[in-house]
Design goal:
The protein is α+β, with helices and mostly antiparallel strands and about 180 residues long. The protein contains five helices and seven strands; from the N terminus they run βαββαααβββαβ. Strands 1, 2, 3, 4, 5, 6 and 7 form a seven-stranded antiparallel β-sheet that branches. A hairpin with a 5-residue loop joins strand 4 and strand 5. It is globular. The two termini are about 25 Å apart.
């Protein structure tokens, strides 16, 4: 079930560690500079990362980098695409727009939980975080998101039939074996 989490509610070690890393990179500014994020320092989470470019007035989002595990889970590559081009399901798209609006307006990280749905059993939850980044330390112009599905056993997910991520277009049927 989708829900926003307070920082202290997050269970994901990766999210907790990245939150502390993000705070350390602020260097006295409201927001960390995008240039201060060093991929070598976060290499263990890179497959689970989405980096997006964020534009305000009007709100637009372009996916600049999508990690390999995100692509596998979502069943599509969307690096280089605009949010409106990806064709997420309408509920998921509306949530994303609201979440990016919070990042821009409140200039703070956003944490949450979401589900992967299985046709033959209960849903499985994972946690995610969206962390605003800046070019000047004040205005949000990028976002680094992490989806921590490492709690999901990858082999079981691939061999379990009929699963779908909550972002899938509503016309999508559950996928077999992750394809």
């Amino acid at each position: 079930m989708y829900r926003i989490l307070r920082r202290e509610e997050a269970q994901s070690t990766a999210l907790k560690q990245f939150y502390a890393y993000w705070e350390g990179k602020r260097a006295g500014c409201m927001l960390p500079l995008k240039a201060s994020i060093d991929p070598a320092e976060i290499k263990d989470v890179l497959p689970y990362v989405i980096i997006s470019e964020v534009f305000d007035e009007p709100l637009r989002v372009r996916y600049r980098l999508v990690g390999t595990e995100i692509v596998k889970l979502r069943g599509r590559e969307f690096t280089g695409k605009w949010l409106h081009e990806v064709q997420w399901n309408p509920v998921f798209s509306a949530r994303l727009i609201k979440e990016y609006r919070v990042l821009i307006d409140e200039r703070r990280p956003l944490l949450g939980a979401d589900d992967i749905y299985f046709a033959d059993g209960p849903r499985t939850a994972y946690e995610w975080g969206m962390f605003p980044l800046s070019g000047d330390g004040e205005r949000v112009n990028h976002c680094l998101a992490i989806e921590d599905h490492r709690g999901l056993e990858r082999t079981a997910l691939l061999h379990r039939p009929n699963w779908v991520h909550s972002s899938a277009p509503s016309r999508d049927k559950p996928r077999s074996g992750g394809t």
